[in-house]
Write a structure and sequence with these properties.
5-stranded mixed sheet
């Protein structure tokens, strides 16, 4: 069970609770635009968040009610993955969930094209409306899964509880997943009957917000690649040692940490706390540049030092010593 103090970065918005002492805080406050999506993106830009911030353990502190879903959707798009959240006094470890909602069976593809549908809230006029249950696989009936999965456009009416609204949103987006989670419209359930696929009055288009946040992340990467070239600064002995450790083949470190690979060179992630439910299928890919990425734990590829820090719970200096000293034995299970 994770606690708020296990995180290094807390992201707040209007109405969010305070972060614990010692946890870095970033405020994402929407700007004054009348358009909710533009205001949220403006707040994201003004916050100074970068993709690198999500390499550390980051959590969204949700305000009361479902309004925080808008900020949360922008963070998921910008980070490229689901972000853990804190709501109702509970840490919701969304980033540790499986990739998709394929485990929920549906009733088969509809015989006719399904343009609009709604999940949650009162029965909507003119479009199919389905509801979710309360526990386990029984949360989603096959009939509800079909409607959520195959509707071209989906309105979602969340419950009043921030915790329940976030859980519903993550589940619905996973059920609609293709290459990525597909986000629904955030709806009140009182919008008019939609006319056409791109009806503009069906609530807040969280999928458009996600895509705009992805584009903003890409803008930052392009700007970083195009930055002015400056003369290199000589590395200090301290930084040189960490750089040397990062040059070690990450496979060597993985073996020392008790990990193993399958025939396709996919490795078992050695971070036990994040895989407490068992890592039956290898989830870590090793790349030619010596970096690795676990699709459950990492937003981007990481090097040996970062991996050792995560597994052993040590400082970067101690991680470098462990990597470079083959006689330095540490049991990762003790971390």
């Amino acid at each position: 069970m994770y606690k708020l103090t296990d995180y290094l970065l807390a992201i707040r918005t209007t109405g969010s609770p305070p972060a614990p002492a010692g946890v870095k805080t970033v405020d994402l406050v929407p700007t004054g635009s009348d358009d909710v999506i533009s205001a949220t993106l403006g707040g994201l830009r003004a916050s100074g968040l970068t993709a690198a911030d999500f390499r550390s353990r980051a959590i969204f502190l949700a305000p009361d009610g479902p309004a925080g879903l808008v900020t949360y959707a922008a963070l998921c798009g910008f980070s490229g993955r689901r972000v853990d959240a804190y709501a109702g006094g509970t840490v919701l470890a969304f980033s540790r969930l499986g990739d998709d909602g394929a485990s929920f069976p549906d009733a088969g593809r509809p015989s006719e094209f399904l343009l609009w549908a709604q999940v949650g809230g009162p029965v909507a006029d003119g479009i199919p409306t389905v509801h979710l249950g309360s526990a386990g696989q029984e949360m989603v009936s096959p009939q509800a899964a079909t409607v959520i999965r195959y509707a071209a456009r989906l309105r979602m009416v969340p419950p009043d509880s921030a915790r329940d609204a976030l859980a519903m949103f993550v589940l619905v987006a996973a059920l609609r997943r293709r290459a990525d989670d597909r986000f629904p419209f955030l709806s009140t359930g009182t919008e008019p009957v939609p006319v056409g696929k791109n009806a503009p009055d069906q609530g807040i288009d969280l999928e458009r917000l996600r895509q705009e946040a992805v584009r903003y992340r890409q803008e930052l990467r392009i700007a970083r690649r195009g930055a002015d070239i400056v003369p290199p600064v000589p590395l200090s002995p301290h930084d040189r040692r960490i750089a040397e450790a990062n040059g070690v083949d990450v496979r060597t470190l993985l073996r020392r940490l008790g990990s193993s690979a399958d025939e396709e060179d996919m490795w078992h992630c050695p971070r036990p706390r994040r895989h407490s439910n068992g890592d039956e299928r290898p989830s870590m890919k090793v790349y030619e540049n010596g970096r690795a990425r676990c699709h459950r734990c990492d937003a981007e590829r990481i090097g040996p030092v970062r991996l050792a820090v995560d597994v052993l719970g040590v400082t970067p200096d101690e991680a470098a010593s462990f990597i470079l000293d083959s006689d330095h034995v540490v049991d990762p299970r003790a971390a």
